[in-house]
Amino acid sequence: MAASPPTLSFPRPTFAKLSPHPYLLAGLAAPDSASRSNGRAPHEARPIHIHTSSLSHAHGSALVRSGDTTVVCGVRGEILPVTSIPQYRPTTSYNTAEEERSAGLGRGELRDYDLLVPNIELATGCAPQFLPGVPPTTLAQTLSTRVYSLLHSCKIVDPAAVRIWYHPSKVLSAGDEDEKVDDDDDNDGDNGDEEERRTKPQLMAYWVLYIDLLFVSLDGNPFDAAWAAVLAALRDTKLPEARWDPDLETVVCESKKAPMALQITGVPVACTAAVFLEKEHAELGGKQKKNRHWILLDPDRLEAELCQEVVTVVVDCEDGSGETRIKSIEKQGGTVIGRELMRGFVGVAEQRWKEVRKML
């Protein structure tokens, strides 16, 4: 019986490792329907799963999984007295979060005093390139910087929610009343100023929110997953009621009272896409030739390595007006995505916002 001739074809996993670009192009250029190597359509994102209150010893936490990308976020609040802030500028006005939003107030304490501290770590083995014993990667530092910048630009945390005030009693003792009556004729103005100083609220400390993220598994698009975890963990954060004790001269927390939920404004959601080119730059030889492209929403690790142009849009549709507010646009490399494509991509980001908002 004659032996069958040797085959020149490779299994799909082997083909993907040996020639990743032709492998992805073969699915996208299919005449019937474009399909990526992971089976998704170009504008199809991976389903996102969000679980809150995942950590027992954090004030707020969340676990987010998108495909094979999994990240855990924990928020821990620590008390920072104003006397420990070198650049502290005293404030004399007491406003609730609602009053500040309606009046358009905001002194920038969150950024000036570093009250929001994100930190991102990539666990050993979360991806093939992350080996044990290596220093922090550039990716982790870049993600931390982007999360930090977006936290402040979106203003999702109200400064009033992290302030700890001291409210002196407005009821004077009998001795104080007698003393005040005796001095009324001689020094009315001084007594009025003294009473105001004694009864005026004083800002004594802040809550510092340490936001730590750990990537357990990384299969592309880390920023969207990290930001979703930060947003979910902050919405889950509950801080104990804190007050200033004048006898102890320190801030104490009420353990018998239920913790108060952190006030969050809006639901900004990040949406990332990468541009895959039919021909790589080396194949074009640096010449301007016609080059088809596909915009791949929520790229996985293989797709991200093959794409040189990436765009991230952060949108929020939570204000109740029905309008979409663009909070941030970031674009890296390439020249494919212009104004027209960006307008269309905002519509894709709106759909992604609905999916994430439903999970939150």
UniProtKB/TrEMBL annotation:
Residues 175-194 have a biased composition (Acidic residues). One of its GO terms (cellular component) is nuclear exosome (RNase complex). It is found in: Cytoplasm; Nucleus, Nucleolus. Residues 44-240 form the Exoribonuclease phosphorolytic domain. GO terms for biological process: exonucleolytic trimming to generate mature 3'-end of 5.8S rRNA from tricistronic rRNA transcript (SSU-rRNA, 5.8S rRNA, LSU-rRNA); nuclear mRNA surveillance; nuclear polyadenylation-dependent rRNA catabolic process; rRNA catabolic process; TRAMP-dependent tRNA surveillance pathway; U1 snRNA 3'-end processing; U4 snRNA 3'-end processing; U5 snRNA 3'-end processing. Residues 175-197 are annotated as: Disordered. Gene3D superfamilies: GHMP Kinase, N-terminal domain. InterPro entries: ExoRNase_PH_dom1, ExoRNase_PH_dom2_sf, Exosome_comp_Rrp42_subfam, PNPase/RNase_PH_dom_sf, Ribosomal_Su5_D2-typ_SF. The keyword Cytoplasm applies. Keywords: Cytoplasm, Exosome, Nucleus, Ribonucleoprotein, Ribosomal protein, RNA-binding, rRNA processing. GO terms for molecular function: mRNA 3'-UTR AU-rich region binding. The keyword Cytoplasm applies. SUPFAM superfamilies: Ribonuclease PH domain 2-like (SSF55666), Ribosomal protein S5 domain 2-like (SSF54211). It comes from the Eukaryota. Belongs to the RNase PH family. This is Ribosomal RNA-processing protein 43. It comes from Apodospora peruviana.
